[in-house]
Amino acid sequence: MNRPRILALLIPTLTAVGLYLTLDWADDRAIATSERAGMADTLQAEQTLESRAKGPIQAYSQELQTTIFDVDGALQYTLRADSQTQFEDQTSLLTQPRITLFDAGKPNWNITADYGRIERHPSAADDPSRENSADEDLVRFIGNASLKAALANSSTLALQSSEFSLIPSVEKIRSDKPVRVIDQGINQTAVGFEANLTEDSLYFEKEIRGSYEPPR
Question: For residues 185 and 138, what is the distance between their CA atoms, to the nearest angstrom?
Answer without folding.
Answer: 32
